[in-house]
Amino acid sequence: ADGGGSAESEGPKELSDLTVGFAQVGAESGWRTANTKDIQDSFEEAGIPLKFSDAQQKQENQIKAIRSYIQQQVDVIAFSPVVETGWDAVLNEAKDAGIPVVLTDRAVDSKDESLYVSFLGSDFVEEGKKAGDWALAEFAEATEPVEIIQLEGTTGSAPAIDRGEGFAAAIAADPNLEVVASQTGDFTRAGGKQVTEALLKSNPGVDLIYAHNDDMGLGAIEAIEAAGLVPGKDIKIVTVDAVKDGMQALADGKINFIVECSPLLGKQLIEIVEQINNGETPEKRIITEETTFTQEQAIEALPDRQY
Ligand code: GZL
């Protein structure tokens, strides 16, 4: 063998001889830590060596990590792009080095789809639509205008862009529903709390908070209670993810509805890596299965929740 080439040029390697480099976003939320654990456990179980890096939500750190994986000539690079833009240069470097790249969780806006083998993750527009459809039903009988505060995820990230788009498209069906304020809380609990504190002051009549993830919704609950109001009653809350802490708040009636976004991508990522190793072509876009939860459904599901 010529050695040092990428997996497909040498034919299938033993799984234990493969190396995969994973450049993770960070550890900003319950979802992210569950995603990291699932990926690490899946590689452990498959016996495939994994190099792992945490970028603390900084794109330059992810790019550095990808460059180091290229230097180390790993067989496959996988990562969740913290934002959609700015990846073409480093992805072309991976392509020139003959190293296939798999996008997990978040997407890039590169026009050149040859820069990655597959995208594995959720349909974030659909998630936003599910949250908007619930809001339409929840406030269908409202006679007064329904004021909505939106807590956006990381600015420029695919989930923030698409969850905002899906929600806006859904609530356009009822002119009574209006997003009166929208600001990023960067997917963190602290960010959700700070932004909600500020926006409650400027929007005292708010009826609903739409948070792009549970963690910002949990921060909003703290801010609502600090303002002497009752979350889930005085101000309703709809979030995305369905991690344990969010589901507990839903069971307790502090959140009113959660759209699930599954972090359990490890098994499907292993399947893609094995297909690449066998010289097969994985599907370009693999969308994860996910559902929604009402309070009753959360109470039912909580005991079996893995994360
Ligand atoms: C969505 C993922 C988002 C989660 C947040 O797939 O990228 O990032 O919804 C996480 O909790 O921070």
Automatic annotation (TrEMBL):
Residue ranges of every copy of the Periplasmic binding protein domain listed in the record: 21-280
Keyword Signal: yes
Location in or out of the cell: Cell envelope
Chain segments annotated as coiled-coil in the UniProt record: none
Keyword terms: Signal
CDD domains: PBP1_galactofuranose_YtfQ-like
SUPFAM superfamilies noted in UniProt: Periplasmic binding protein-like I
PROSITE patterns, per the entry: PROKAR_LIPOPROTEIN
Principal localisation: other
Listed InterPro entries: Peripla_BP_I (IPR028082), SBP_2_dom (IPR025997)
Keyword Signal: yes
Family as reported in the entry's similarity comment: Belongs to the bacterial solute-binding protein 2 family.
Protein name: ABC transporter substrate-binding protein
